[in-house]
Amino acid sequence: MNLKEQFKRIGGTVNEDIYSKMDIKSDIAQTWKDEDIMEEDLVAWFDASVRAGSSDLGDDIIYGIKKALTRMVKLNNEYRR
User: Fold this and answer.
1) Where would a tag sit more exposed on the chain, N or C end, judged by fewer CB atoms within 10 A?
2) d(CA 81, CA 57)
3) Distances from the Cα of 65 to the Cαs of 19, 23, 62, 70, 73, in angstroms?
4) What integer pLDDT is reported at residue 25 of this predicted model?
């Protein structure tokens, strides 16, 4: 199941005109040369997701990332001990 199908499965709506013009690729096993490339990849994914979905989806993604960031900071602090 691709990203578009998953999004529709949970009740999301997709702007078909915008989505059809996107060149979305995903490689979960990808490695990045540095954090700048990783950041650009994440922002490009976010941009494509919001353009294909809506600003409400953008709000949901931002909220989820904030929650995940809180958890990641706690984990990272544990590893520092």
Assistant:
1) C
2) 37
3) 23, 23, 5, 9, 12
4) 62
**CA-to-CA distance for 46 and 65, rounded, in angstroms?**
11
pLDDT along the chain (81 residues), means of 10: 61 58 61 83 88 88 94 93 86
pLDDT for the residue numbered 67: 95
Q: Report yes or no: 12 and 57 within 8 Å, Cβ to Cβ.
A: yes
Q: How far apart are the first and last CA of the chain?
A: 40
Q: Report pTM.
A: 0.59
C-alpha R_g of the chain: 15
Sequence-distant (≥ 6) Cβ neighbours of residue 32 within 8 angstroms: 38, 41
